[in-house]
Write a structure and sequence with these properties.
The complex is a heterodimer of chains A (104) and B (187). Chain A is mostly helical and 104 residues long. Chain A contains 3 helices and no strands. Chain A is elongated, with a radius of gyration of 44 Å. Chain B is 75% helix and 0% strand. In chain B, 29% of the residues are buried. Chain B is built from 8 helices and no strands. Chain B has 187 residues and is mostly helical. The chains are: A mainly alpha (104), B mainly alpha (187). Chains A and B meet through helix 1 and helix 2 of A and helix 2, helix 3, helix 5 and helix 8 of B.
Chain lengths: 104, 187
């Protein structure tokens, strides 16, 4: 019984130990740290701007390369149709498929 | 009116106005955060985050509550978020420790609040460990009322709860603390 009472006294004293607690002082350098972080964020980053320019140039280059490739492919395909026809003609002539003079 | 003026000055980029706001609220923010984190370095780091958040989002402050309440809310939410992230890291460290046996275990340091009088420091250290075990809502109500000395009405505003809910939370927090401390002193 005495032990229970002793424990309860300890608990009560412990809970009361924060009564009259005062506010802890703030480190005076914290504000300077906050301001330097704010300035870092506010200043437009030169690297970010350069990065944007580089990205824009790369995208433009990519589009140009694509357009040129498409143009060359189209040009090449029209040429290749012509050569293909020529090649077929050549083959047919070579194997006498179109000549009226072929005799068995 | 003064509050509105201060906000407008901050919004217009007046750094001196932001310093005024910092001077007004830094002790409140720091002590609230300290109550949760129980670590001076972590509390200072989180305080920086909180003031950066205040600076960024003060334009969105709708003034449906006082600036004081709004800042307390940010401090409470950021503290709880910080604790959750740390617990997540602790769980990850535990998983890692299963695979790497040399991994050090995370230990909570003994915390002595700087605002406690010398003769109560040891007991307060035990009480803070017990506070750390409380569920989030009870912890918030207890810290704001008993450590930050906010009135019940102010706690209601910060927590967006009715007075009876806050009273109930503080009552449950006290009975839980009694249980934890009983276990501690019975050993």
């Amino acid at each position: 019984m005495d032990t229970e009472k002793k424990i309860q006294d300890e608990i009560d004293q412990t809970i009361q130990s924060i009564e009259g607690i005062k506010r802890a002082g703030v480190n005076p350098y914290v504000f300077n740290k906050i301001m330097s972080r704010l300035n870092e964020k506010e200043e437009p980053s030169i690297f970010a701007f350069k990065g944007f320019k580089l990205a824009f140039a790369m995208v433009t280059l990519f589009i140009i390369v694509n357009l040129v490739t498409i143009f060359l492919i189209q040009k090449d395909s029209t040429q290749s149709v012509y050569t293909r026809e020529q090649m077929i003609d050549n083959i047919t002539y070579e194997y006498f498929l179109k000549t009226p003079y072929y005799n068995y | 009116m003064e509050e509105k003026d201060l906000i407008n000055r901050i919004l217009s980029g007046d750094k001196a106005a932001f310093k005024e706001l910092f001077d007004l609220y830094s002790a409140k923010v720091y002590n609230t955060v300290l109550g949760y984190l129980q670590n001076k370095e972590d509390a200072e780091d989180l305080m920086q985050e909180i003031f950066l958040q205040i600076y960024k989002s003060i334009g969105g402050f709708k003034q449906d509550s006082s600036l004081n309440t709004w800042i307390y809310r940010i401090a409470v939410n950021k503290s709880l978020e910080f604790i959750r992230n740390k617990s997540r890291k602790k769980r990850f460290a535990f998983v890692k420790s299963i695979f790497h046996k040399d991994n050090e275990e995370y230990e909570i340091e003994d915390f002595i609040h700087p605002g406690i009088i010398l003769e109560n420091k040891e007991r307060a250290g035990i009480l803070f460990k017990a506070i750390d075990l409380l569920p989030d809502n009870q912890k918030t109500a207890f810290i704001l009322n008993k450590i930050e000395n906010l009135s019940y009405d102010e706690v209601c505003e910060v927590m967006k709860l009715s007075k009876s809910s806050v009273e109930s939370l503080i009552h449950r927090a006290k009975s839980n603390l009694q249980k934890y401390l009983y276990g501690f002193y019975k050993k």
